[in-house]
Amino acid sequence: MRASELLAGAAALLASGVSAEAYLGFNSGNTLPSREAKFKKDWVQEFTTAQNLKNSPGVFNAVRLYTNIQAYSQTSEPIEAFEAAIETNTKILLGVWASGTNTIEPEIKALQNGIAKYGKKLTDLIIGASIGSEDLYRVSVTGIQNKSGVGAGPAELVKFISDWKKAFQGTAIANVPIGHVDTWDAWTNGTNKPVIDAVDWVGVDEYPYYENGKGNNIENSGYLFDRAYDAIEGAVGGKPIWVTETGWPYVGQTWDQAEATIKNQQYYWQEVGCRKLFGKVPTFWYNLRDSNPDNEMKFAITDNLSTTPHFDLTCPKTFKTTPKASSSSASATSAATGTGVSSPSSMESGSSGSGSSGSGSSGSASSGTASSSEPATVTAPAESAVATGSATSVKGVSAAAVAGMTLLVGVFAML
Ligand SMILES: *[C@@H]1O[C@H](CO)[C@@H](O)[C@H](O)[C@H]1NC(C)=O
Ligand SMILES: *[C@@H]1O[C@H](CO)[C@@H](O)[C@H](O)[C@H]1NC(C)=O
Ligand SMILES: *[C@@H]1O[C@H](CO)[C@@H](O)[C@H](O)[C@H]1NC(C)=O
């Protein structure tokens, strides 16, 4: 390989690594548990709590939204979370609802309306956009078996991604990285490869709690998570991975071996959040507050937006999930192949209220959105959470970036 090629490769690696700041945030649907619309003040409360959580390992100053449209708006009114984000300096991962519709025009319009209203104050906060959420899961064998609601296939998603790029070409957000969020087994399904090719980053919703039949007890949760993560890494050809939903419920039925307790919620925070994600991978925890009334599992880490969570958020210095245990654990091993269960949120969509087509979702987990669109699978908790933050988040330069820099330095030395 020639030095110039090496240099180009190193630069690409560096660029991709650096672009993946390790954002910290929560998910946030556009409705409350009562199914009423959330308004600016509701998001200001969420974002303020997220940034001020006691003993937080970093500042949760990012939010993942499920839609650009204010709940129940028929006219592509921009979601009021935008205004709250501006007021609290919260970074925004935009969401676009993409199932049960043949156009994302209302979503595009709502964002355009928001940009017309707030300009650079809004566009400076936008860190990414996800076209779709668990759409591929819902059309997969498991998603259909689980009656997860209307989804969308790879060709539709690729078209929507292209529609989005065209709409924002030459605007202030033209370079915002585009992703798609799905369950891990959607990403390892070869039929969905065109979606991988079309995105800048790959979003994954992963809930070991829902992985029945795989030894999903809490002590195994870190191994199940790693298996899924590694499987995606192997399938996406070096595209950055963003963990768009993960968490453990503190209320709900025992799901095979998985028990919903506060103690387990803390264990999962430590063994998956602290060990694997925070400061390393862009992460949107599920969740700060529950908002999907149809999901009997409750994932909130705090009550009534208190800044004192159910458990101490402090990260430990050592972990129980170790590489050695991983390979010897029979259950972890078998887990990799199973089906992925999606997340609770899947249902959440926040999609636009009625405006969107209403595809049905049956879903139980969903969060409440008014919209028709929530997906509903049981699987995903999907609700909404929010986060925000003010100041600095835990930003870390990713390992890939470090590797890229090292490589770059080496190349310069060769020249
Ligand atoms: C793989 O993906 C395709 C397209 O999304 C879907 O139709 C198919 O059911 C998936 N396969 C499995 C085993 O879920
Ligand atoms: C949260 O708020 C509800 C409604 O005001 C109240 O009934 C409940 O006791 C509160 N929970 C906690 C833990 O403060
Ligand atoms: C989805 O379906 C599979 C297979 O039918 C089942 O084992 C699993 O529990 C279901 N997941 C959810 C979340 O319902």
From TrEMBL:
Xref: Gene3D superfamilies: Glycosidases
Cellular localization per UniProt: Secreted, Cell wall
Region (Disordered) residue spans: 320-378
Family: Belongs to the glycosyl hydrolase 17 family.
Molecular-function GO term, any one: glucan endo-1,3-beta-D-glucosidase activity
Keyword check for Hydrolase: yes
Pfam families (UniProt xref): Glyco_hydro_17
Main subcellular location of this protein, as a coarse class: secreted
Record GO cellular component, one term: extracellular region
Biological process (GO), any one: carbohydrate metabolic process
Low complexity bias: start-end ranges: 320-351, 362-375
Keyword Hydrolase: yes
Protein name: Glycoside hydrolase
Signal sequence bounds: 1-20
Keyword list, A-Z: Cell wall, Hydrolase, Secreted, Signal
Gly residues biased stretches: 352-361
